[in-house]
Design a protein that fits this description.
Elements (H helix, E strand, L loop, with lengths): L2 E9 L3 H9 L4 E5 L3 E5 L7 E5 L11 E5 L2 H11 L3 E7 L4 E7 L5 E7 L1
Parallel strand pairs: 1-4, 5-8
Antiparallel strand pairs: 1-5, 2-3, 3-4, 6-7, 7-8
Organism: Streptomyces termitum
Pfam families: Glyoxalase
Protein name: Glyoxalase
Length: 115
């Protein structure tokens, strides 16, 4: 299993303001589903930050997202560890397979893979 990227998910009710502010730092919008917007560095595309109003299919909004190469293997390992699964493994309509798990500090981690 390998990690492809780690993205902080910050709550935001003002995505336009965030786009403008972080644009001053060189980040550009690379994804916008209306409820989540991701900005990235054009030179280092894995350097990203997301702003989220709410998650439409999960019970909570995650604190960060970790993209992995084999989400099913990670899900099996996390379940075996006994960690709390907050949102079960599922395929989402926007093209990701994901689940949420709570880390030891209480943060909710969105673990995902692109289909």
């Amino acid at each position: 299993m390998s990690v492809r990227r780690v993205v902080p998910n910050l709550p935001s009710a003002a995505p336009e303001g965030n786009r403008a502010f972080y644009g001053l730092l060189g980040l550009e919008e690379v994804m916008n589903h209306g409820w989540i917007m991701t900005l990235a560095s054009p030179e280092v595309p894995a350097a990203q930050i997301s702003f989220m109003a709410a998650d439409p299919t999960a019970p909570v909004a995650p604190d960060l997202s970790v993209e992995v190469d084999d989400v099913d293997a990670v899900y099996a390992a996390v379940r075996e560890s006994g960690a709390e699964i907050v949102h079960p493994l599922r395929d989402e309509e926007w093209g990701v397979r994901r689940f949420f798990v709570r880390d030891p500090g209480g943060r909710v981690v969105n673990v995902l893979g692109h289909r």
